[in-house]
Amino acid sequence: MEEFDGLLRCWLQILADKGIEELILINRPMPLGCLLRSTFFLPSTFLGMTTLTCLYLGLWKFPDMAGVKRVTFSPNLRELGLCTVLMESKDLDFILDRSPVLETLCVESNIFKLGLRLVSQSIRCVKIILSFFEEIAVVDAPCLERLILSGGWTKDGVCTKVKIGHAPKLHSLGYLDSENHVLEFGNTVIKAGTKTSPSTMVPSVRILALEVRCGVRSYAKMIPTVLGCFPNVETLHIMVKPVWRNWSTLWQAQP
């Protein structure tokens, strides 16, 4: 689409004029290096689609927000999906701040350094799939019910900080991975043996999911400590992850 910038803008404007409600806009699959080197940004035309209720974007560079008017991004947007979208933390802040009825946010296959600062009076479900975030901070989300983390990983040995602040309706959380996630409350980092207190507890959570490498003692010892932070859990899911180092040693030992 880099060669057809004007055409794409025209298409988007036609859709905007027609009052489109659902849009899935996926760029042509390309090697990641091409996306990183490209100077082509998704036209900001979609920011003016005030009738949108559902939007999914894939394989784009988020528009340069310099000069964009500080207006509501989409007053009717309830569902947003971002798959391999090159963007900055301030762009996510922009979307959340200007989507007053957004209920579902899904970020998938994000490999860029992002921080998610969740401040929303409407968000109910956040899904982070196969992505790396420097920090996921639930600052003020009074309607948040589910925070789903799937397939998390570290980058340059840096784990994702998961901070749970004001989320009184949060009832489902996971998968928390002791290898890839660091649970933090205020200035308290939860480690094996940390004594919990009211300030490090989330009593609303009823469903909790953990990923654990049970072959690594330090990871397994985190389970009771994490459970102490969620005292009212009724359903616990534990996914046991293989210890690849041990499997490799075993394989090499075979005759």
UniProtKB/TrEMBL annotation:
Pfam families per UniProt: LRR_At5g56370
InterPro entries in the record: F-box_dom-containing, LRR_dom_sf, LRR_FXL15/At3g58940/PEG3-like
Segments traversing the membrane: 40-60
Keyword Transmembrane: yes
Keywords, comma-separated and alphabetical: Membrane, Transmembrane, Transmembrane helix
Domain F-box/LRR-repeat protein 15/At3g58940/PEG3-like LRR: 9-238
Tagged with keyword Membrane: yes
Name recorded for this polypeptide: F-box/LRR-repeat protein 15/At3g58940/PEG3-like LRR domain-containing protein
Highest classification ranks of the organism: Eukaryota, Viridiplantae, Streptophyta, Embryophyta, Tracheophyta
